[in-house]
Design goal:
The protein has about 220 residues and is mostly helical. It contains nine helices and no strands.
Amino acid sequence: MKDRAIVQRYLDPGDALGEVLFGLIMVLSFTVGARFLMTEEEFNSTELVVGAVGCNIAWGVIDGVLFVLGSLFHRSQRARFYRSLRSASNEAEALAAVQDEFGLEDEPLSARPEDRARLYEAILTLSAHAAPARARLLRRDFSSALVVFLLVSATAVPGVIPFLLLQDSHLALRVSNTVLILLLFLGGYRWGHYTDVRPWRVGLAVTFLGVAMVLVSVALGG
């Protein structure tokens, strides 16, 4: 519970689960690829373990860097939007811009038009009384990036443990694939708790899509 709270302190639950599922798919691509693309003589469990762990660590670094850049871009874009409101020729134009930026039409919330209008007016009033600061990197960005790196990297561990515990490499490969597919389902099941869909349906959908993406990746040589 404490570890989960730490993760959710820096990442949205959907983002955190997405990183975990991404990491699992990366490892599964290695293990499934080894199963279909390597002959018995070519199969080397040590190389597979090193490759899978190395790949997830590399993608953990990449995802962490992209997360920092994405956070900075989002804040910069929002600050630029607030500054642009000050150059609007009239209030109607500014309100239209606010509606485009914060429109609630696609939200699962049946707010009345007059309620939405009052919200847009409140946002416009707030922006008129506050000067948006220039976007900059925050300590939280780097902490969140570290969490992203750890989540993606750690997902390699369940997939390589069978190769460390079992002497039969082919049995270890089958166990590894089974464990990873089960974790895909569990990750999707957990994701389902944050949606209006039954968790087991989300789990099955994520498992199916995850395996399908792995097969496409393997077929394309990825």
